[in-house]
Here is the input.
Amino acid sequence: MLPAILLSLSLLQDSSGLTKVYYVDFEFETFSPVTRRSIKQQFVQLSKNELIRVMETVFDDSFHTRAKDKFEEPRVRLCFQMKQGPVFVDKLGHVSFGSKNWKMTAASVQKLRQILAKYPVEIDLSVPY
Here is the structure.
């Protein structure tokens, strides 16, 4: 599945060649829910190569487990845009991509944190909460 996903990647790059990835650290607990809409207030800007690393981690089948529980809407922690639509990851590593859902392992969530920790989080207060 991963090669097809990478080939169909729709990079939404700005003039600097960077792509916005909406992100709240997986370890953070928030007073207000972080939803599919409100996650767009916080983002990091990634190069194409770093975005591909994030995508490889999310879509790599070896990092999937059978999810016994569901995606937690008020605990969204990561969102990036693909040609087929947005990909969302919740605090526990549940992934929602269109009609597909799976759970990443704790190791893959930690790998995502390591990739994204290198980048400063920017805030866009013009996005409604």
Observations:
- The longest strand covers residues 76-82.
- The helical segments are 2-7, 48-59, 106-116.
- Residues 48-59 form the longest helix (12 residues).
